[in-house]
TrEMBL record:
Positions of transmembrane segments: none
Domain Fe/B12 periplasmic-binding: residue ranges: 63-339
Gene3D superfamilies: Nitrogenase molybdenum iron protein domain
PANTHER family, per the entry: IRON(III) DICITRATE-BINDING PROTEIN (PTHR30535:SF7), VITAMIN B12-BINDING PROTEIN (PTHR30535)
Signal peptide: 1-30
Name of this protein: ABC transporter substrate-binding protein
Keywords of the record: Signal
InterPro entries: ABC_Transporter_SBP, ABC_transptr_periplasmic_BD
Family: Belongs to the bacterial solute-binding protein 8 family.
Provenance organism: Streptomyces yaizuensis
Length: 339
């Protein structure tokens, strides 16, 4: 995603009771500081594949810094807040009462509302940074895994953000839900909480399957376009960002499914040509969802688009649409709206 300020986290609870239960139970994640249990010694070293690179960990990282809300909540869903030195997140996280994993947010230091940087990471005495390309890591700012490695700090890349090889800017190497499940299972191994990770993935798979069972099918599938932002050209989702699987599993036909990228820009003429029947608005940034809706309704090139003529919009929050533990809940909610 671009480096816009995050909208306050005002996301409603999204059928996450089972996930919250899993997040609060299970074996202890960490041994007392400075100690490693015999079981942990038997578990390590572990090797996982992250964005095409095989990574070996001789022990669980103890001071993780995360960047962005979805990435932070992946750690919280695995019950790993005790392994975190803190998180970086622009904007306000809103009322803790409205946020799943509210206890984890309250217990974990909010290090900065600005962009993550090397100085912040070193000040936090981090041993690992969990971020992604355009989710904190960016060659233009000089904050990259390679720079961290020179500083003695490890990194783990969000799988949604993996470079796909076709272009230095194009991202995505697998279906969005597979990216979420991959990161949960990888981190489950890295932090020796495999049982918790496997239970989370099983719960999410069941949640998605239940939503798909009642979702529109065949000719009843409405054409759906994801609108993030942009006036001259719309910023939207390709095949490798969260909205693709959210739309598809919810019973929609994602009109930009042929774009082999995650988040990217297209032309309005492409939107008009593909004539979406529903527009999903990403609610975040300085422009409110209602302002985005009013713009779409008033933008002359879109006047003949079906979704505009019928004023058919669905609003989802940023944290539901980027890779995060809230993706399955977003599928449930969107499926309900598309039926």
């Amino acid at each position: 995603m671009p480096h816009h300020p995050l909208h306050p986290l005002r996301v409603p609870a999204l059928a996450l009771a089972a996930v919250l239960t899993l997040s609060g139970c299970g074996a202890d994640v960490a041994a007392p500081s400075g100690e490693r249990s015999p079981a942990a010694d038997r578990h390590y070293p572990v090797t996982v594949e992250n964005c095409g690179e095989r990574r070996t960990f001789t022990q669980a990282p103890e001071r993780v810094v995360t960047n962005d809300v979805g990435i932070t909540e992946i750690m919280f869903a695995l019950g790993l807040e005790d392994r975190m030195a803190g998180y970086v997140m622009p904007g306000s996280k809103g009322s803790a009462q409205d946020v799943p994993w509210k206890d984890a947010y309250e217990r974990t230091p909010w290090l900065s509302k600005k962009r993550i940087n090397a100085e912040l990471v070193l000040d936090a005495r981090a041993d690992l940074v969990f971020a992604g390309w355009n989710y904190g890591f960016d060659e233009s700012t000089g904050f990259t895994p390679a720079k961290l490695r020179k500083l003695g700090v490890d990194s783990y890349l969000l799988t949604e953000s993996c470079r796909n090889g076709g272009s230095s800017r194009a991202r995505g190497v697998m279906a969005p839900l597979d990216a979420l499940y991959t990161d949960l299972l990888n981190l489950g191994r890295v932090f020796d909480v495999e049982d918790r990770a496997e239970k989370l993935v099983a719960t999410f798979r069941e949640q998605v399957a239940d939503a798909m069972a009642t979702a529109p099918r065949g000719a009843d599938r409405p054409r759906v376009f994801l609108y993030d932002d942009g006036r001259d050209k719309p910023f939207t989702s390709g095949a490798y960002a969260g909205p693709h699987d959210i739309i598809t599993r919810a019973g929609g036909d994602h009109v930009m499914k042929d774009l082999k990228d995650s988040w990217t820009t297209v032309g309005w003429e492409t939107v008009v040509e593909r004539d979406p029947e529903v527009i999903v608005i990403n609610d975040y940034g300085d422009t409110s969802a209602e302002e985005k809706r009013k713009f779409l309704l008033s933008h002359p090139p879109l006047a003949r688009v079906s979704a505009i003529k019928n004023k058919r919009f669905v609003v989802l929050e940023y944290v539901e649409l980027v890779e995060s533990p809230r993706n399955p809940g977003a599928i449930v909610r969107l499926a309900r709206e598309l039926r």
